[in-house]
Amino acid sequence: MNSLDYVKAAGLWLGFLLVAIACGMIRERFLVPGLGPLGGSALGTLLVGAIIFGLIYAFIGKLQAPTRVCLFKLGLFWTMATIMFEFLFGHYVMGHSWDSLWADYNIFQGRLWPLVLMVTLFGPLLARKIRD
């Protein structure tokens, strides 16, 4: 990957944020009222993960022969940026407690957010494997 690819990757990450915000609005407006809090959250999270993977798949197709290491680093960058944004913005801007932020990571209580992070982390490698 060249420098411009990294700039595009950072821009795509901003797209991930927009997708997450839009899906959160859809979740709260339509999914939670129809499916309840747990069902709405689960379906909303799966929707976010599917859209993000679609964006990753399209992006990877435009790169010139990226190595597996490069793709892993790209996924790691996106995942770390997401976690840092979620905690820093969530706590310091939105005023959420640390406990409430950590609660989204508890898969034993039906929270599926870690799946989105897994898609973000391994999505570049999976997209390349599917494309090959």
Poorly predicted regions are: none
Oligomerization status of the protein chains: single chain
Strand-and-helix sequence, N→C? Answer: HHHH
The percent range for strand residues is under 5%
Shape: globular
Largest sheet: none
Structural class: mainly alpha
Mean pLDDT: 94
Cα distance spanning the termini: 18 Å
The total strand number stands at 0
Number of domains: 1
Radius of gyration: 15 Å
Helix content: over 70%
Number of helices: 4
Structure description:
- With 132 residues, the protein is mainly alpha-helical.
- It has one domain.
- Helix content is 83%, strand content 0%.
- The protein is built from 4 helices and no strands.
- It is globular.
- The model has no long low-confidence stretch (mean pLDDT 94).
Task: Provide the fold topology.
Elements: H1 3-61, H2 68-93, H3 98-103, H4 113-131
